[in-house]
Structures are given as structure tokens and as C-alpha cells.
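Colleagues,

For the teaching module next term, I've prepared a clean inverse folding example: a structure given as C-alpha cells, and then the sequence designed for it. I'd like students to try predicting residues themselves before seeing the answer, so please don't circulate the second half yet.
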């Protein structure tokens, strides 16, 4: 398997399943066991008969032995739709800044710490696990306001779609992302089959994302937020007289960064992250914050499993 995910990693996640706390039964049967009791061939349990129950589900062998009427219950296979939304705004195309200076300017970090690349790997891994479980999968790259600049892989299913999915994710390009709220609201109203939804973003957007997340939940989506940051965004160390350029708008500002400025930044960062975490807790959104120095394998195989996103 070329590109984002190598064969060794795919083998590690091949038997993992995405976890949905809700029961959704669609027109096609997937390979996911639901907690809802249905009529498939997989026996689950017994319960006492109550008037009005389907007599075809009565276990007459038990009735003959015990003279008590019990109904056989069966596990029903559930079809899950998985939506993967990847923020492809310009701020995501960032690999961090090294502490040292080269010819009077900062040197940019290791490309393997690039947030967009990290997000692409995460998106592809989530989609692959869904394809392996015969879930319906769709992947979207958000770079504008939910309009024609945003690309979407049409809903698909089955492991035979893996190469197509990975190529789609690989080809996503960074663009201007002005309003994530608008993009999420548009997705909530335009997309069919609400289901499990993963939003992968650095959340460096004007207006935030809370209104968009509310719209997704109001439309029936079960939302998980993967907050991807570079190490210098979490804990910056640059000092001196600098010219900062906004990667989204191109606006620039000359600043002097000293210890006091760094301390102020760290306080504001902690408050910002706490606000996001508290919002997600109130709304029952599974929130995972990760910086790109954490090995990608650890994010999927350990962090996401510990947070109950995978089993």
C-alpha cells in the first residue's frame, strides 16, 4: 500500500472497529454488532413472553421442558455511516518552527510534524477501519465555507475501496479556510445519513467552531473532535523582534517576544483549550488534543483506544 499508510500499520488496525454509542439500522447490513435486539441468526439472550410478542420467536423446546414461555433474542447487525472531515485550511499546512536561527531568520521544523500530513494520516486510518468493518464511509476536505472548494469522497464501503480512499486523501490541498462554523453548518444540512463524525482540525479559525458543532449534533451526528497542533503552538520558545504573518489572511504584525509575552501566550492557550474541552464535555463530544510530535501510531493504537473511539 503506497502513500500515507504502510502495510504494517494497516495490519495493526485491520481488526479495530470504530465505536458508536448509538444504534442505527440502515437498508444494508454491515458487520457491526448492535446492542439492539433484532432478528439476525446470531443468538443473544432470552426474555419472558409478554402479550403481543411474536409467537414465532418463542422457544418451544424450553416451553416443553419448563412449561414457561420465553422469547429468543438475536443480535441485529447495524449499519454505521462514518463521516471524516479534515480541515485543509492554510494554518494546517504548518510544521512548526525550530528554536535556532539561520541567516537571520527562523528555520522551519521537520516536515513530518506537518499538521495537514498528520491529519491526512489520521483521516485515512479512520476511513480504513470503517471500510474494513463494511461501514459506509465518506471523507471531506474543508478548505472554504462548505462550497465548491471543499472536496468530498462519495459515500463508499468495502476494503476494495482502500486505494481510492487513500489517493483521495493524499490529493487534498491546503486552501483558505475563513469560516469553519459555516462549513460545518453546511455539511450538517447537505449530507445524508447522519452517523459517526470525526472532525480533524487545529481550530485556528475566526469565529471558532462551536456553532458548527451544535449544528452537526442537531442534525443527528455523533461527533468526535481531534484537535491537532504543532509543538511550537503548544509551547512556543521563539524570542526576539519578529514579523508574524497570518497564514490564513496574509496580514502581518511586528512583535517583540520576551518571557512576559510567552507567559501571556501560554495562559491564553490554556484558557482557549479549556474552553474547547468544557464545551465538548457539556455536549458529550469526544475531544482528543494531540501535537504532531506524538507518533501517529500511538495516536491511533493507544490514545484513540483509551478514549473509547476504537475497540
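(Answer key — instructors only)
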Amino acid at each position: 500500500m503506497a502513500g500515507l499508510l504502510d502495510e504494517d500499520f494497516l495490519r495493526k488496525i485491520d481488526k479495530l472497529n470504530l465505536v458508536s454509542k448509538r444504534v442505527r439500522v440502515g437498508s444494508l447490513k454491515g458487520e457491526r454488532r448492535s446492542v439492539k435486539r433484532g432478528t439476525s441468526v446470531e443468538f443473544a439472550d432470552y426474555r419472558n413472553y409478554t402479550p403481543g410478542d411474536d409467537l414465532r420467536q418463542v422457544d418451544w423446546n424450553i416451553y416443553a421442558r419448563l412449561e414457561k414461555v420465553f422469547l429468543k433474542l438475536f443480535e441485529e447487525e447495524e449499519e454505521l455511516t462514518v463521516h471524516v472531515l479534515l480541515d485543509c485550511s492554510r494554518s494546517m499546512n504548518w510544521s512548526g518552527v525550530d528554536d535556532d536561527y539561520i541567516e537571520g531568520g527562523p528555520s522551519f521544523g521537520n516536515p513530518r510534524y506537518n499538521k495537514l500530513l498528520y491529519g491526512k494520516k489520521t483521516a485515512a486510518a479512520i476511513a480504513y477501519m470503517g471500510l474494513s468493518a463494511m461501514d459506509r464511509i465518506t471523507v471531506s476536505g474543508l478548505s472554504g465555507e462548505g462550497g465548491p472548494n471543499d472536496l468530498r469522497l462519495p459515500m463508499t464501503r468495502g476494503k476494495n475501496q482502500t486505494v481510492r480512499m487513500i489517493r483521495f486523501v493524499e490529493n487534498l490541498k491546503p486552501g483558505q479556510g475563513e469560516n469553519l462554523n459555516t462549513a460545518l453548518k453546511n455539511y450538517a444540512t447537505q449530507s445524508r445519513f447522519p452517523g459517526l463524525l470525526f472532525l480533524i482540525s487545529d481550530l485556528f479559525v475566526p469565529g471558532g467552531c462551536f456553532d458548527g458543532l451544535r449544528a452537526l449534533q442537531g442534525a443527528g451526528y455523533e461527533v468526535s473532535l481531534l484537535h491537532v497542533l504543532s509543538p511550537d503552538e503548544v509551547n512556543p520558545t521563539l524570542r526576539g523582534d519578529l514579523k508574524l504573518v497570518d497564514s490564513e489572511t496574509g496580514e502581518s504584525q511586528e512583535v517583540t517576544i520576551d518571557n512576559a509575552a510567552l507567559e501571556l501566550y501560554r495562559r491564553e492557550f490554556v484558557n482557549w483549550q479549556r474552553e474547547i474541552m468544557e464545551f465538548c464535555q457539556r455536549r458529550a463530544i469526544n475531544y482528543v488534543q494531540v501535537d504532531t510530535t506524538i507518533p501517529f501510531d500511538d495516536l491511533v493504537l493507544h490514545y484513540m483506544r483509551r478514549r473509547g473511539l476504537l475497540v
